[in-house]
Automatic annotation (TrEMBL):
Protein name: Outer membrane lipoprotein carrier protein LolA
CDD domains (alphabetical): LolA
Organism, as annotated: Prevotella histicola F0411
Superkingdom to which the source organism belongs: Bacteria
Signal peptide range: 1-22
Keywords: Signal
Amino acid sequence: MKKLLLILVVFCIATTTVSAQAVSEAKIRQQIEAAAASMKTMQCDFVQTKYLRMLNDKMVSRGKMYYQQSDKLRWEYTSPYAYAFVLNGSRVLISKGNRNDVINVNQSKFFKEIARIMMNSVVGKALNDKRDFKVSLSSSATEYVAVLYPQQKQMQQMFQKIVLHFNRQRAMVAKVELIEKRGDRTVIEMMNVKVNSPINAKVFTVN
């Protein structure tokens, strides 16, 4: 499950946005922070494809993600299985099938750290927080690319690097690549993104 939570962290990083044509790393960082700060809510569909190097195969999952400033997040797989992770303030709900587990973030060092990185990512702080990632930024005519090198031990054990692809025209992250230590690769593609649209409060219910 820890692996899934680390993937959730990366997905949260992908919710940050870029709002203009940047020409320098400093400018890109500033624009990401400003755009993320203006994002009160965000929801989207996603397709997650895992490429297995040893088996020359891939696994495809689909789901939905919801975020509400500043401490509410729901990550939900809808296919090929049902699984939901809900963060609401200091409480976490993990739902799988008929089983629901509720965890107090403040009573678990691991979950507290996951929650911190998630929220830092969503509000645009991840690209400037050297505690979590070393970041390299570049741009082309069609996209910005942020390469994140994990600095935390648990993430370093899993990921070589994380690559965020920002679509310049739409000013949103379009794709995230997770490159694992052993060569496997996970690609998350975001679709049907809605920013600052109302979200039903029930989406973030933890009980």
